[in-house]
Amino acid sequence: MLFREKYVTVPVAGGKLSGHSPELHHILEMSNYLATVKGLQNVLDSGVSKMMQQFHLEAGRIYLLDESGERLVLRAAKGIETHGLESMGMGEGFSGKAARAGCFLAQRVTDLEDRERSEMLSDLGLQSVICLPLIAMDQMLGVMNLGASRIIELSMATIDLMVVLGNLIAVGILNARQAEALEEKARALEVQKESIQFFAYTASHDLKSPATAIHGLARMLLRLGGEAMSYKTKEICQQISKAASIIEELAGELNAYIKAKESPLDPEPVDLDGVLEAVRGNVADEVERRGIAWRQPHGVGPIHADRLALIRALQNLVDNALKYGGKGLSLVEVGYELTPSHHVFSVRDDGVGLAEDQADKVFSLFGRADSSRGIPGTGLGLAIVSEIAHRHGGRAWLESQPGKGCIFYFSMNRDLAQEKPA
User: Fold this and answer.
1) Which DSSP string corresponds to 161-205?
2) 3-state SS class at 394
3) Directed axis angle between helix 231-262 and helix 381-391, to 10°?
4) In total, how many domains does the chain have?
5) Residue 302: predicted pLDDT
6) In which domain, by residue range, is 271 found?
7) Are 319 and 384 in contact (CB under 8 A)?
8) Are residues 160 and 298 located together in one domain of the fold?
9) What's the CA gap between 335 and 398, in Å, rounded?
10) Amino acid 11: pLDDT
11) 413 and 280, same structural domain?
12) Sign, Cα dihedral of 71, 75, 79, 81
């Protein structure tokens, strides 16, 4: 032990184990090498090459079990003609025995029980063969066959080293398979996502056109029918028109949600004063008619954001306050704060407010607060705000007390100018 020293310093970077323990150095080298290899076939080819190089061998093969678990199928080979060696059953010969028993086997070619295979390998110039089971997580994956044109002298230390290196290769195989499976799932999800997106775009478009037509026809019917219509008939026409308007609104909001979630962002310097004036202009008539006070910040310098997305988020929050604030609503106030990492926007109202247990629900897709019953709406407005915030590296949340109004917040990362997200 080195504890006679005050402290112990042993360099471990850059493969410094070689001077102390060559075996551990080889293990570290194999582990580091396999960590850089991507793809199952590359792991197999690299594993064979590394083992041949490490133990000065002339031939190497890797067989993997097929899906049935009954046959070993050749997947990688180097330094040997593989005709006649393409596959074998688990009950066949040297390799099958190693796989069945999960044992390291080494033998002279002339001593192999399968005389035909013995002669084949001898003709290929081999005198010694080694079969190394490839086992990871107690799972038999296959075997590695190694061959030499000489009689190999094996010590237990060499066998142990081969077994450990074989295990590292087996773990690399398992990891590569899992990575390929994840990539396949990701591709499938991407296809599914594109299909859903196409369906949503198509559905919203196909909904809007007939809804607009129905809306127009209902108005035309009211106009043409005039006084000849009964009160009940007029009421039915108005209900048709109202239902068509709701479908139009839903189609538009679906499109807006998809754009908020999927469309590429275009961060640019945005004049917040100009954005707020645009939002205020869209609600000015209603604010004046209802006698609602409007407050907003002034003199804020340019901020980096997607201008259209920022307008949409603020517009949705202002519309939300006007729609759900109640008859007693008298104030809508837009706020802005700059933190070390984010731009934080807020829309405060002095309306009816929300119960605390409704806070998370309202930002979910089609989520509406219990207090919104009877008020027309799609349940997408705040979900759009949440998506816009998320795409900008921020989040959306609210503070509320029943009867005292709400403050809705959303944030955007200040580094969007550097990130330029896609």
Assistant:
1) HHHHHHHHHHHHHHHHHHHHHHHHHHHHHHHHHHHHHHHHHHHHH
2) coil
3) 10
4) 2
5) 87
6) 265-419
7) no
8) no
9) 13
10) 64
11) yes
12) positive
Measured between alpha carbons, how far is 386 from 232 in angstroms, rounded to an integer? Answer: 42
Q: Which residues of the chain have pLDDT under 70?
A: 1-6, 8-20, 193-208, 246, 249, 251-255, 257-262, 356-360, 365-379, 417-422
Rg (CA), the chain: 36
* pLDDT reported for residue 300: 85
Distance CA 166, CA 345 (A): 57
- Asked if residue 29 is part of any domain, the answer here is yes
pLDDT of residue 107: 87
- In three-state secondary structure terms, 153 is coil
d(CA 393, CA 339): 14
143, 72 contact by CB (below 8 A): yes
Q: Count the neighbouring beta carbons within 10 Å of the beta carbon of residue 144.
A: 25
Q: Under a CB-based contact definition with an 8 Å cutoff, are residues 383 and 366 in contact?
A: yes
Q: Three-class SS of residue 282?
A: helix
Q: At 33, which CATH number?
A: 3.30.450.40
269 strand-pairing partners: 304
Name the region of 73 (left: φ>0; alpha: ψ -120 to 50; beta: rest).
beta
Partners of 63 in the beta sheet?
74, 143
For strands 303-306 and 267-270, give the pairing.
Answer: antiparallel
- Residue matched to tokens 């008939």: 233
Give the separation between CA 315 and CA 412, rounded to whole angstroms: 16
Residue 196 covered by a domain? no
How many Cβ atoms from other residues are within 10 Å of residue 336's Cβ? 15
Q: Within 10 Å of residue 355's Cβ, how many Cβ atoms?
A: 13
